[in-house]
Specification:
mainly beta; six-stranded mixed beta sheet; four-stranded antiparallel beta sheet; 47% strand
Amino acid sequence: NWQLRGTYTVVFSPTISLSPTTFSFSGISNGSIPSSQNLRISNTGNATLNWSFSRIGGGTWCNLTPSSGVISAGGFQDTGVSVNAPSNAGSFTDCNIRISDPAATNSPQDAAITYSVRPSDVSGVVASLAACPSRNINLSWTAASSGASSRTYNIYRNTTNTIPGSAYATGITTTTWTDSATVVGSTYYYWVETVS
Protein backbone atom coordinates (compact mmCIF):
# COMPACT_ATOMS: atom_id res chain seq x y z
CA ASN A 1 0.00 0.00 0.00
CA TRP A 2 1.03 3.50 -0.79
CA GLN A 3 0.83 6.14 1.90
CA LEU A 4 0.86 9.88 1.32
CA ARG A 5 2.80 11.72 3.92
CA GLY A 6 3.62 15.41 4.09
CA THR A 7 3.29 18.67 5.95
CA TYR A 8 0.30 20.86 5.32
CA THR A 9 0.00 24.47 6.41
CA VAL A 10 -3.42 26.03 6.87
CA VAL A 11 -3.25 29.80 6.39
CA PHE A 12 -5.61 31.98 8.39
CA SER A 13 -6.00 35.54 7.11
CA PRO A 14 -8.49 38.37 7.47
CA THR A 15 -10.21 39.90 4.44
CA ILE A 16 -11.47 43.51 4.30
CA SER A 17 -14.92 44.33 2.91
CA LEU A 18 -16.30 47.91 2.84
CA SER A 19 -19.91 48.98 2.40
CA PRO A 20 -20.57 51.35 0.78
CA THR A 21 -17.46 52.23 -1.24
CA THR A 22 -18.60 55.71 -2.35
CA PHE A 23 -19.86 58.67 -0.32
CA SER A 24 -21.37 61.99 -1.33
CA PHE A 25 -21.57 65.05 0.93
CA SER A 26 -22.99 68.48 0.16
CA GLY A 27 -22.79 71.77 1.99
CA ILE A 28 -22.98 75.55 1.73
CA SER A 29 -19.82 77.63 2.02
CA ASN A 30 -19.33 78.71 5.65
CA GLY A 31 -22.46 76.76 6.55
CA SER A 32 -23.06 73.88 8.92
CA ILE A 33 -21.13 70.61 8.85
CA PRO A 34 -22.96 67.84 6.95
CA SER A 35 -24.09 64.82 8.98
CA SER A 36 -21.73 61.86 9.16
CA GLN A 37 -22.44 58.73 7.14
CA ASN A 38 -22.01 55.06 8.04
CA LEU A 39 -19.20 52.91 6.68
CA ARG A 40 -19.42 49.23 7.57
CA ILE A 41 -16.09 47.45 7.74
CA SER A 42 -16.52 43.68 7.55
CA ASN A 43 -14.04 40.87 7.98
CA THR A 44 -14.94 38.10 5.54
CA GLY A 45 -11.74 36.18 6.26
CA ASN A 46 -10.94 33.51 8.82
CA ALA A 47 -8.63 35.44 11.15
CA THR A 48 -8.87 38.61 13.23
CA LEU A 49 -8.75 41.90 11.31
CA ASN A 50 -6.69 44.69 12.91
CA TRP A 51 -7.63 47.61 10.69
CA SER A 52 -6.50 51.23 10.59
CA PHE A 53 -7.67 54.32 8.69
CA SER A 54 -5.62 56.69 6.55
CA ARG A 55 -6.46 59.47 4.10
CA ILE A 56 -5.48 59.23 0.46
CA GLY A 57 -5.63 61.85 -2.31
CA GLY A 58 -3.81 64.68 -0.56
CA GLY A 59 -6.82 66.30 1.14
CA THR A 60 -7.28 66.49 4.91
CA TRP A 61 -10.99 67.34 5.14
CA CYS A 62 -12.33 63.77 5.54
CA ASN A 63 -12.38 61.77 8.78
CA LEU A 64 -13.30 58.34 10.11
CA THR A 65 -14.43 57.59 13.66
CA PRO A 66 -13.03 55.44 15.13
CA SER A 67 -9.78 55.46 13.20
CA SER A 68 -8.84 51.85 13.98
CA GLY A 69 -10.36 48.67 15.32
CA VAL A 70 -10.31 44.92 15.75
CA ILE A 71 -12.88 42.71 14.03
CA SER A 72 -13.14 38.98 14.57
CA ALA A 73 -13.49 36.59 11.63
CA GLY A 74 -16.95 36.93 10.13
CA GLY A 75 -17.70 40.10 12.10
CA PHE A 76 -18.16 43.76 11.23
CA GLN A 77 -17.83 47.23 12.72
CA ASP A 78 -19.84 50.35 11.87
CA THR A 79 -17.84 53.57 11.63
CA GLY A 80 -18.66 57.20 10.85
CA VAL A 81 -17.36 59.02 7.78
CA SER A 82 -17.41 62.79 8.23
CA VAL A 83 -16.13 65.94 6.55
CA ASN A 84 -14.94 69.26 7.90
CA ALA A 85 -17.02 72.45 7.80
CA PRO A 86 -17.47 73.64 4.21
CA SER A 87 -15.40 76.67 3.23
CA ASN A 88 -14.39 77.00 -0.42
CA ALA A 89 -17.09 76.37 -3.00
CA GLY A 90 -16.55 73.60 -5.56
CA SER A 91 -16.59 69.85 -5.96
CA PHE A 92 -13.79 68.08 -4.10
CA THR A 93 -12.59 64.48 -4.46
CA ASP A 94 -9.06 64.71 -3.03
CA CYS A 95 -9.74 63.13 0.38
CA ASN A 96 -10.68 59.47 0.47
CA ILE A 97 -10.84 56.66 3.02
CA ARG A 98 -8.28 53.84 3.09
CA ILE A 99 -8.64 50.83 5.38
CA SER A 100 -5.53 48.70 5.86
CA ASP A 101 -4.28 45.61 7.64
CA PRO A 102 -0.95 44.21 6.40
CA ALA A 103 -2.14 40.71 7.30
CA ALA A 104 -5.31 40.93 5.19
CA THR A 105 -5.56 39.11 1.89
CA ASN A 106 -6.74 42.27 0.07
CA SER A 107 -5.24 45.21 1.96
CA PRO A 108 -5.73 48.10 1.42
CA GLN A 109 -9.36 48.81 0.50
CA ASP A 110 -10.59 52.31 -0.40
CA ALA A 111 -13.83 54.29 -0.26
CA ALA A 112 -14.21 57.40 -2.43
CA ILE A 113 -15.74 60.68 -1.22
CA THR A 114 -17.20 63.54 -3.25
CA TYR A 115 -17.79 66.80 -1.36
CA SER A 116 -19.91 69.36 -3.20
CA VAL A 117 -19.91 72.82 -1.64
CA ARG A 118 -22.04 75.56 -3.16
CA PRO A 119 -21.74 79.26 -2.40
CA SER A 120 -24.16 80.77 0.08
CA ASP A 121 -27.15 82.73 -1.15
CA VAL A 122 -26.81 86.46 -1.70
CA SER A 123 -28.55 88.84 0.68
CA GLY A 124 -29.65 92.46 0.77
CA VAL A 125 -30.79 92.70 -2.86
CA VAL A 126 -31.74 96.31 -3.65
CA ALA A 127 -33.28 97.65 -6.87
CA SER A 128 -33.26 101.39 -7.52
CA LEU A 129 -34.15 103.66 -10.41
CA ALA A 130 -31.36 105.61 -12.05
CA ALA A 131 -31.65 109.38 -12.21
CA CYS A 132 -33.94 110.77 -14.93
CA PRO A 133 -34.04 110.79 -17.86
CA SER A 134 -32.51 107.30 -17.69
CA ARG A 135 -34.91 104.35 -17.45
CA ASN A 136 -32.20 102.07 -16.05
CA ILE A 137 -32.74 100.00 -12.94
CA ASN A 138 -29.68 99.42 -10.78
CA LEU A 139 -29.37 96.24 -8.73
CA SER A 140 -26.95 95.64 -5.87
CA TRP A 141 -26.56 92.85 -3.32
CA THR A 142 -24.32 91.48 -0.59
CA ALA A 143 -21.90 88.92 -1.96
CA ALA A 144 -22.38 85.23 -1.36
CA SER A 145 -19.80 83.41 0.72
CA SER A 146 -17.65 80.98 -1.26
CA GLY A 147 -14.34 80.97 0.58
CA ALA A 148 -11.40 81.41 -1.77
CA SER A 149 -13.42 80.23 -4.77
CA SER A 150 -14.59 82.72 -7.36
CA ARG A 151 -18.34 83.22 -7.70
CA THR A 152 -20.68 84.36 -10.42
CA TYR A 153 -24.32 85.34 -10.40
CA ASN A 154 -27.34 85.00 -12.65
CA ILE A 155 -30.10 87.63 -12.81
CA TYR A 156 -33.71 86.63 -13.34
CA ARG A 157 -36.30 89.22 -14.42
CA ASN A 158 -40.04 89.00 -14.85
CA THR A 159 -43.05 91.31 -15.02
CA THR A 160 -44.89 89.10 -12.51
CA ASN A 161 -43.73 87.86 -9.10
CA THR A 162 -42.81 84.42 -10.50
CA ILE A 163 -39.25 83.30 -11.10
CA PRO A 164 -38.87 82.54 -14.82
CA GLY A 165 -37.36 79.32 -16.09
CA SER A 166 -34.26 80.91 -17.61
CA ALA A 167 -31.89 83.64 -16.50
CA TYR A 168 -32.12 87.14 -17.99
CA ALA A 169 -28.40 87.84 -17.48
CA THR A 170 -25.63 85.35 -16.67
CA GLY A 171 -21.99 85.30 -15.63
CA ILE A 172 -22.13 88.46 -13.49
CA THR A 173 -18.92 88.67 -11.44
CA THR A 174 -19.63 91.83 -9.43
CA THR A 175 -22.31 92.63 -6.85
CA THR A 176 -23.95 95.30 -8.99
CA TRP A 177 -25.79 95.13 -12.30
CA THR A 178 -27.78 97.57 -14.42
CA ASP A 179 -30.88 96.73 -16.45
CA SER A 180 -30.98 99.15 -19.35
CA ALA A 181 -33.75 97.35 -21.30
CA THR A 182 -36.79 98.60 -19.41
CA VAL A 183 -40.09 100.02 -20.64
CA VAL A 184 -41.69 103.08 -19.05
CA GLY A 185 -44.74 102.13 -16.97
CA SER A 186 -43.75 98.48 -16.54
CA THR A 187 -43.20 96.69 -13.25
CA TYR A 188 -40.18 94.40 -12.95
CA TYR A 189 -39.25 91.73 -10.41
CA TYR A 190 -35.65 90.60 -10.00
CA TRP A 191 -33.93 87.59 -8.45
CA VAL A 192 -30.19 87.06 -7.97
CA GLU A 193 -28.84 83.51 -8.04
CA THR A 194 -25.37 82.44 -6.92
CA VAL A 195 -23.93 80.09 -9.53
CA SER A 196 -20.42 79.24 -8.42
